[in-house]
Amino acid sequence: MLKKFFLNFLSSFAAVWVALGLFTMTAVIVIVALLGKIGASGSDTESLKRHSILRIDLSGVIEEREEARDVDYIGLVQGDIERPQALDVLVSAIRTATDSKDVDMIYLKCGGVSAAPATLHALRSELAKFRESGKRIFAYGDGYSAGTYYVASVADSLFINPAGSIALQGIGGTTIYMKNLFDKLGVEFEVVKVGTFKSAVEPFILNEMSAPARAQLDTLYGDMWRFMRDEIAQRRKISSADINRLINESNVMLRDGKYDVKCKLADRAVYERQVDDIFAAAMDIDKDDLNFVTTASMVDLDKIVAEIGSKNQIAVLYATGEIAESARAGINCEALVPVITELADNDNVKGLVLRVNSPGGSVFGSEQIGEALDYFKSTGKPFAVSMGDYAASGGYWISCGADRIFADPLTITGSIGIYGLLPNIEGLAQKIGVNPQTVTTNPEADFPSLFARMTPSQHAAMQTYIEKGYNDFIRRVAKGRKMSEAKVRQIAEGRVWAAPTALKIGLVDELGQLEDACEWVIAKVDSKKKPNIVSYPQFNPGFWDIIQNAGQSAMMQMLSDNIMKMTADAWLGQIAVNVITRKPVQARMIDIRFIY
Fewer CB within 10 A of the terminal residue: the chain, N end or C end? Predict the structure, then answer.
């Protein structure tokens, strides 16, 4: 027996060392391949010189800002290690190009971009400023999604592949309703909420959208589409009615590039190989002298590092993602609150712009962040909010105390309401042969329980708790917006609003971008010298960020091609994880996946 033990031990020991050796060899090969790629790219480094063209790829995901990321194993096995583009980097690059004597033009290389409408509008607005400076923008795409076309329509000249198409189709959103699925699994959700329009809980308890939920989204999407459609129409010099006709009657998304030119959605139908000739002719230079630079070339990293230690600064604090009490991604109140406190106590910080892009989340987390922002405001420093794609529910909770609120015209805000969502998996446990047995000293010791429904007294207590939270929310908005509580209740009820309507009803003060909020705070600061704008929290890239920035090497492709790809729908899986891990009491708007 002793001999057998040692044999098993030695074989296990050897297996571990073999596994570690293989892992180390693979890691070394990957790193060497990446370093080789970096070195190879370094031998052909782009340089900014006279008559340069800033190339912007309008494809893939555009997020609010660049953030450090954990290793994406799913992306790795699928061969996708590309980093999303960051709106703040794109805007900074365009702004630098506008002021640069070396950049004559922007080239928008168009594909399928994935971003919410407010992000697209912020990018389009910055491009419009570039064009208004007297410089030109050319756009080309083999095909255009509606979101990509909305941004590209700002261009002086818009080209399309003769066989391509422009997928104009309006906008909409899809919400997945899952009650039938949960019924089959034996999972039940008990809901306690306040607000007729607080529809974030509907997908778990209904099979189809309620009338109030559909009504508010009809209004929201209608308002947003009219704004986007009218901007396209104005720039392309066609009527808004013509755009609707092209969508509804002509099915323009199924037409080719030549048809798009005929109906004035595009200027010319050309192949991509012809684009350089067009640029060279427009700039009156030889095609071989064209010099394209990327957004990375336009971002002055040395200046950013210098500004961090500035003794005269305006802090731009990013609050992006779902609000949680403790989380690795999104808005982690445990991490954000100390940053706010430090900014309040830092004499070098003269004012604050809170950049909010959040659908809400934990009520507790929202309250903690809100209180910290109240502390900042008590210092007498000016405090503004700039709203991105969303500043709804908990996102509005943390916004409403600002001295002034700016929102993009396509921002979704409001959703003043809260709810409690408690899953009960007793039926699922029975289906799989699990029979939990609980012993407690007090009846409420195991509340809330995954294996039992709420008792009437527990439900009543939960309802009281939710109503108190809702009343606290109402009072916070009333105080911050200088409204009566009665008026806030009229526009609350969990309803989401497009920013232009939110402006009319007093939820925001002004339609504008992050730059407008910064300029407002600067104007309120008593300083002889214009303060520097410094972003917080600071971005500290990790190893995975370095790998993504290096690009996808041949070795990474080889590894991904030999690993079984994930077959599960990652998004639906994430929904399940979120439901289980979220706190029961939430101030969160309904999940929206935009279609355009």
Answer: N
